[in-house]
Write a structure and sequence with these properties.
The structure is a single chain. The protein has nine helices and six strands; from the N terminus they run E-H-H-E-E-H-H-E-H-H-E-E-H-H-H. It has a four-stranded antiparallel beta sheet. The protein starts with a strand and ends with a helix. The longest helix has about 70 residues. The chain is α+β, with helices and mostly antiparallel strands. About 70% of the residues lie in helices and about 15% in strands. Strand 5 and strand 6 form a beta hairpin. It has a single domain, classed as Outer membrane efflux proteins (OEP).
Length: about 425
């Protein structure tokens, strides 16, 4: 199958276990909010009963002249609806706290999506880099093989010594080993990518993207920070957790306040459904906490500790975001310069190799110069691949740091479906 970058990311978003479990956490948080909401809503139940009873008065020590000891049987029919409602500010604050916690969980799930995009993108880029290493190793092996054959021909013609043929053969075998190692690294990189996106391990696929060099879009540090603080799902989740902790702290303090309780029931009562009459009970009361054994103080202190922790986490994350953005912008600038230098070095190394081959063919130099030129070209090409890979990863990290990884991956890496 042909596998593009965006296709790999979509598969990762569908199959990643972390994202699946994040969805379950969101469902749990939603259930907690519904539970808090249920505490504020009325409870209504119905009960329909029919009772037949016979009483032995003597068993209770009741004996009255003219009254039989056995009373009954007599029947009671009761069909009734019961309603109750408890209202206090403590429960209102708990509902607000659980709502903010649910929002934080949803934002955490969004942040998990960003992490999946980052991981899959990084693995895809690394696999592209390994594929490029295979291509360069194959090209180096082809060159070394050509030089070895050329050296054999020149030795048979008596223009060079046997040592030059031996050097060419050693270089050719070294390039064979380098190609084998590159092919192994490429295969392992494909396995890692397939594992991350949920492909069966036996599925064969080819990457449709190349290793591009696209300059990062111009953005100032201030612009990046402003966008990150407004877009980063993890930072918004941290802020929601602070808000949830504030409401939880308010709920703990409001445990001291009175609460209103309402209870009512209405139904038909009689000896049978056809011989019954409506009856009702309505009750309203105010519950006033007097002494709770220090429970309120303990709850307030615990809520205060959680609130301070959430605020510290949010401040630390804010500083971490600035660090990530600064770090990514430095990496992008440095890697862009390295790409330009490495590209020039590859061109110079190729020219040097061609000239050394010409000199060797003309008999004015030994095979040592050709081998050194080959090694210099291999080093230059490896440096170019590394710098290009670093630049693309830095672009992806900047997109993640700003909170636009999933949206901007197409712009940063020029992916296509």
């Amino acid at each position: 199958m042909q596998l593009g970058l965006l296709q790999a990311i979509e598969m990762g978003l569908r199959n990643n276990l972390g994202l699946i479990t994040a969805g379950y956490s969101t469902e749990s948080a939603r259930a907690a909010r519904l539970r808090s909401l249920a505490d504020l809503l009325p409870n209504v139940t119905t009960l329909t009963s029919w009772t037949s009873e016979q009483v032995n008065l003597a068993a209770f020590g009741i004996t009255l002249p003219g009254v039989p000891l056995i009373v009954g049987p007599f029947h009671v029919f009761d069909a009734r609806a019961y309603g109750s409602e408890t209202f206090d500010l403590n429960r209102v604050s708990k509902l607000r706290a659980s709502s903010e916690a649910e929002r934080a969980t949803g934002l955490s799930a969004q942040d998990t999506r960003e992490l999946v995009v980052l991981i899959v993108g990084d693995l895809y880029i690394e696999t592209i880099a390994q594929a490029s290493r295979v291509d360069t190793a194959q090209a180096q092996l082809n060159t070394a093989t050509t030089l070895f054959n050329q050296a054999n021909d020149m030795k048979r013609a008596g223009t060079i010594a046997a040592i030059d043929v031996l050097r060419a053969q050693v270089e050719m075998q070294a390039e064979q080993q380098r190609l084998i190692a590159a092919q192994n690294s490429f295969a392992k990189a494909k396995l890692g990518l397939a594992r991350a996106i949920g492909l069966p391990q036996g599925q064969q696929f080819e990457l449709t993207e190349k290793l591009p060099f696209e300059p990062a879009p111009p953005v100032t540090l201030e612009q990046a920070l402003a966008r990150a603080y407004s877009l980063r799902a993890d930072y918004r989740a941290a802020q929601a957790l602070v808000s949830s902790a504030e409401h939880a702290r308010a709920a703990a303090g409001r445990e001291r306040l009175p609460g209103l309780e309402l209870n009512a029931n209405y139904g038909d009562l009689g000896t049978s459904p056809t011989h019954s009459h409506g009856t009702y009970t309505a009750q309203a009361g105010v519950r006033i906490p007097i002494f709770q054994g220090g429970k309120v103080r303990a709850d307030v202190e615990a809520a205060d500790a959680v609130l301070r922790q959430r605020k510290a986490e949010a401040e630390n994350l804010r500083a971490q975001i600035e660090f990530e953005i600064r770090n990514a912008m430095l990496d992008i600038e440095t890697a862009a310069q390295q790409v330009q230098v490495a590209e020039q070095a590859v061109g110079l190394a190729r020219d040097a190799l061609q000239q050394s081959r010409d000199r060797f063919a003309a008999g004015v130099s030994t095979g040592v110069e050709v081998v050194q030129s080959q090694q210099a070209l291999a080093t230059a090409e490896e440096n170019y691949i590394n710098s290009l890979n670093s630049h693309n990863v830095a672009n992806l990290l900047l997109a993640r740091a700003v909170g636009e990884g999933e949206q901007q991956v197409r712009n940063y890496l020029k992916g296509t479906h």
